[in-house]
Protein: 3-phosphoshikimate 1-carboxyvinyltransferase
Amino acid sequence: MKRIQLIPPKQIDVTIQLPSSKSICNRALIINALAHGNTQPENLSDCDDTQVMIRALTNMPPTIDIHAAGTAMRFLTAYLAVTEGTHVITGTERMQQRPIRILVDALRSLGAEIEYTKNEGYPPLKINGRQLTGSEISLPGNVSSQYISALLMIAPTQKKGLQLTLTGDIISRPYIDLTLELMRQFGAKAQWTDNNRLKVDTGGYQPRRFTVESDWSAASYWYEIVSLSEQAAVRLPRLSEHSLQGDSKVAELFGLLGVSTTYLSDEVILRKEGETVSRLEYDFINQPDLAQTFVVTCAMLNVPFRFTGLQSLKIKETDRISALMAEMKKLGYVLTENNGSELSWEGERCEADTNPAIDTYEDHRMAMAFAPAILRLKNLRINHPEVVSKSYPHYWENLSAAGFGIIEE
Ligand SMILES: O=C(O)C1=C[C@@H](OP(=O)(O)O)[C@@H](O)[C@H](O)C1
Ligand SMILES: C=C(OP(=O)(O)O)C(=O)O
Structure:
């Protein structure tokens, strides 16, 4: 089994080129394809999730394998439903366990032709593309915002546009806002008309030049590193304060954990300064991808926490709630789960493994969130470190540039 051992740096003073945001890349690619743009968006990520999207849209093979990319699976399902031709879309074993029924039902009720080729409710799907006939539907907004983004993005190309009503508590709302904003930047008319209603006018997209900004979710691991260091400065180019990404909230949250953020014209500087709160409570409903970063950081800082709004974590790359509980236990921390939507830690400890090896469950964020813990531990190993390629292929090289030792076992 591939595994690495980590050694902490003595001090950190480094500039890191983060990957560009896969959420923005994958939206820009779909919208650009629908706009019949003849140039690609610029600064596309070389991460797996974006590369599968580029390959699918460039080659459009009869069977499209999007590996582990949730956005690619959901966005391409809608795209293929309105694009001429018959395609099968599939992914990894885990992708075949991530639900897609809500999106398929919504597309079918708008007139799309989609069949399940294996298990009802899950990929793979066989899709026969056509113009949609319907334009008004209601669907749950409390399972994955990616279904909603997928529907919104195809809507300007359909004769009647689209009106959506979302039921239940809406999760990951900033990702819906990101979709609407990018659609508007490509000339579409798309907006919220109420707290739970969305409207997109027909009229297509206008192609334009577009450059993707760096990934704020990836920045969270550098915030974690600074927070767990005695002294550190990290410069992150191509990030801005007024980002479209909801995960830019990480800057404010880490302000509570001893990290300051300085915004320059096209980069941010993180420094270790300021106090750490004695307890942290936060609702991650709008930033689910940050949950792992904060669980590991708070435990390592000995800051008890209660994190809510985690209901979507069970259907991500792995069941992140169980994975966090199991791996934190190896480090000697006993977390409590409540309702499948909350994780808390009130200081309860158990005996830690003497030489802990963190399992990563094919989840990039398990590897990236746990690695910085070496700054507070005697030793730490990460199993299957290659999982980071899903969103941040150069993570280990970047850690090494910051002075971390990375020994392959
Ligand atoms: O639209 C997007 O780009 C994403 C939406 C979120 O998923 P959910 O809406 O399923 O929570 C997030 O977790 C994922 O990493 C990216
Ligand atoms: C949940 C994630 O990705 P996706 O759902 O797009 O596979 C993630 O990157 O944390």
Q: What stands out?
A: The chain has a mean pLDDT of 98. DSSP finds twelve helices and 20 strands in the chain. Residues 22-34 form the longest helix (13 residues).
